[in-house]
Specification:
Strand content of chain B: under 5%
Number of strands of chain A: 14
Shape of chain A: globular
Number of strands of chain B: 0
Largest sheet of chain A: 4 strands, mixed
CATH class of one domain in chain A: Alpha Beta
CATH topology of one domain in chain A: D-Maltodextrin-Binding Protein, domain 2
Mean pLDDT of chain B: 89
Structural class of chain A: alpha/beta
Oligomer: heterodimer
Amino acid sequence: MTTTTPINRRTILTGAGLTALGLAVPSILSGCSSSGAPAGGAGTGSGTGTVKLWMDIVGDANQKYFNESVIGAFSKAKPTINVMTTYYQGGDLRRLIQTALQARSGPDIVRGPSATQTLAWSKANVLADLSGYSEKWGWSDKLSSWAMQAFTTDNKLYALPMRVDTMLLYFNKTLFADKGWKQPTNREELESLAAEAHGQGIMPFGSSNVDWKAASEWLMTIFWNHYSGPEAIYQALTGQAKFTDPVFVEAVQLLKSYFDKGWIAGGADKYFSVPSQELGASFGKGKIAMIPQGGWFMSQVGQYFGSAAKNSNEWDWMAIPTLRPEVAYPLYEIGIGGSLSINQASKNKDAAAEFLNWYYSDRKAALQRMAHTPSTYNIPIDFADSEIPSTIDPRSGRVLTSLNKAVATGDYGYVTWTWWPPKSDVYVYTGLDEVLTGKTTAAAYCAQLAKTFEAEKAAGTIPQLMKRGPAK
Amino acid sequence: MKDIPARTSKAPAAPPSRVSRSRRRRLLRGWGFLAPLLVLNVLVVVGPSIATIYYSFTDWSGLGPATFVGLANYTRAFGDPRLREALLHNGIWFVLFLSVPSAMGLLGAYLLSRIHRFQMLFRAIYFIPYVVASVVNAAVWKMLLSPTNGIGHLLGEWGVPGIGDVAFLGNPATSLLSVNFVVNWHWWGFLAVIFFAAMQGVDPQLYDAAKVDGATEWQQFKAVTIPGIRPTLVFLSLMTVIWSLKAFDYIFIMTQGGPAGSSELVSTLMYKVAFSDYEAGYAAALGLSMALVTAAVLVVYQYLRKKGWEE
């Protein structure tokens, strides 16, 4: 059921304020408007009509797949609901949605950022409470509980997890075979390999933050999980330890030392200036041995290898080696990349919820999508390894089975963009850039992070953390 | 001689009621034409400006409710090292943006005024970077400045020492200057064409007189050309101050203020503060402060104009 709120002073000021920001900050178009939007909570009826969805899928082929395999399939299943999709660039989408949400407009289905940033939206009450729908359709039985918890705060389910993320070490398989290199499993082996590759004029690790400034947090996620360890992270995130503890500072120092040696990206200045497309091309040609990247890179890495890239090389991935003997191997940091929720101001919440329910409930279709498009559609549903379609790329399939195992055994870590609070998460990558350029020290960086984190923890802006041990 | 009655320029006086009616009608017609623009102005300028002032005194996150915090945002701005750094960058940006393109524009305009063949062609060539969208210019230069595939790399391969793998945008020492170079590159041609147009208005007899007095080319330029185009120079200098305060697009596309804030301007900092740090209230205070700086520049300009500096 929905109710209508009349335009009031705050609505007008809010709309005007956002427009003002757009005017004050050059080239920012806030383009907001006020409307008498329904302010009530989510209903649990059956919706019909049109729902708007803004997505950040890039590339004709990817958009075509989404149009056909997701929107097209849903239209067949629910012909009374019309999902209108508009595509934007990733960075633009977040800003546009954030502005629209505050102005009580925008899409009905909200493609949000990671859990930690979506939490900030939820705290501002611009996202609908999905608890009623979850109860009605039993979403908590269909989706992994650890992922659902990440999007539940104050007993309110404010979004659904969109994609399971982890960090992997991609490598040029052909180069490794030619050089007789073995996949490293620990720091000693990794550093020995890096030194050898570097000595031969091959960049050991490719990385860049040119196209995505937050890429620095991917590196920090790796070093904190595989050096500091998930136990230490868990303790820090729950307030039993501090980010100023030596185990966190040392991880930052170790990462910086890899940059200083020219192992990562050829140095910090190249990391800040070489676009990722160039890195990918060098990776395919064998000029770069390994790329530490997220699971999502699996849907892009193929373009740099084989006939499409005019080479005969192959790629594969390995688990990130442990950087300290006390840390388990293999270990997969786990988290959620993006979310789907419903706009609090939507006039068609029920229809939007119908779409979400269809998207998350049709297990067979979901697994097929995982098999068709590497990593992009890896929603956190529970499934047995035997249920994975045989048509899946074995490398993609191995990610799914490895993550299943990691969750079941408890050998998982935490990605910063899901489990760190919003401002702390932003500082993880902005602060690291200062460390890499020598503007600040590892210790000062960790101290500032600890300060930011403690303030956010005190304010309660922190996602619900998955506990240590086997999970579901 | 018959007296001719004196002609008066004044029309016979109309009755007072007719005057006021026609004046009212004229006024109404005027306001009627102005109304759409005024409404638009109130909606997109006055309204948001008032809201910005309001939010600059709050802790608004950009989402949800706002709490009044008094002058906290402004006092915070005084002690914010990020803002200080950004202001310093704005200063550097301003000096370079004012001097380099202006000097190049004047030189270009002067050279254009000296040639007759291919003048249109050169004017078009100078102007092209200005008409290309900033997004395109910035994206192209981002690639051209890449240390592994850009111009520097190419020159290095040709044997030019010390430039082969310079990361212009990735080095904190060069990032701001590199983006500024690109902005100047796109801007100077526009100035050249404007200065050239202004130079056409300088009386040729002044040059002839200067030549008769034995003035060299440089002396003619200094004593005739520059004073002749002073209003254009002053106006463009004023606009340059304002444009340098609101510079955003090239920085945002090429470096996003990085690495580590080394190319951060106040405008890009405001964006980050509002959208990444969820501190829209503080961003509003920064925006308002910059608007006040711009207003101060305008006041100085008007004062100087009144003093006849432009003449």
